[in-house]
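An instance follows:
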Amino acid sequence: MNRLLKLEEFGLFLLSIILFAKLSYVWWIYPLFLLAPDLGLIGYALGPRIGAVTYNTTHHVGLAAVLYVIGILFFTPVLALIGVVVLGHSIIDRVLGFGLKYGDSFQHTHLGWMGPRRGGAASTH
């Protein structure tokens, strides 16, 4: 990921912090739950296809935005919290090169291949 895209993603991470600050939670709740979306990795115990589905569900920026908006519109702070935490976590993952997963391998992401195969183009399927 080039420097400009990483800067853009970092800006979105700052946005997640700003959105969290608008909620009525104490400050330490955000860092406490920031790694919670990685619970989606548990699906990999059942194989790469199921793992990809659970990982992608818990790391989807669009889903995070929808949860946040629903939480705000329907006065459900816990949904807004989940949305903003998933947003912040997912953005940091993108900066670190952990993209959404394809069902064939954990290392195969929408950002390309991670690890030894790094540098390969992301699949278009």
The chain has five helices and three strands.
